[in-house]
Amino acid sequence: MSTSNFTRRGLMKTGAATGAGLALPTIFTSAASAFTNEPTGDTVTFGFNVPQTGPYAEEGLDELRAQELAVEHINGMGDGGMLNTFSSKALDGTGILGKKVDFVTGDTQTKTDAARASARSMIEKDGVIMINGGSSSGPAVAVQALCQEAGIISMAGLTHSNDTTGKDRKRNGFRHFFNAYMSGAALGPVLKEVYGTDRRAYHLTADYTWGWTQQESIQASTEAIGWETVNNVLTPVGAGDFSSYITPVLNSGADVLILNHYGGDMVNSLTQAVQFGLRDAEANGKNFEVIVPLYSELMAAGAGENIQGVYGSMNWNWQLQDEGTKAFVKSFGEKYGFPPSGSAHTCYVQTLLYADAVARAGSFNPCAVVEALEDFEFDGMGNGPTLYRAEDHQCFKDVLVMKGAENPTSEYDNLEIVEITPVEQVTYAPDHPMFGGAEASLGECNDGT
Amino acid sequence: MDAIILQILNGLDKGSAYALIALGLTLIFGTLGVVNFAHGALFMIGAFVAVTVQRLLGLSFEQIDPDKTDFLGNPLKVKMTYVESWFGPEVGGTIVDWSVPVAVIIAIPIMLLVGYVMERGLIKHFYKRPHADQILVTFGLAIVLQELIKYFYGANPIQTPAPSVFKGSFDFGVLVGFDPNAIIYPYWRLVYFAFAAVVLGGVFAFLRYTTFGMVVRAGMADRETVGLLGINIDKRFTIMFGLAAAVAGIAGVMYTPILSPNYHMGMDFLVLSFVVVVVGGMGSLPGAVAAGFLLGILQSFASMNEIKSLIPGIDQVIIYLVAIIILLTRPRGLLGRAGVMED
Question: Could you tell me if A250 and B184 are in contact, meaning their C-beta atoms sit under 8 angstroms apart?
Answer without folding.
Answer: yes
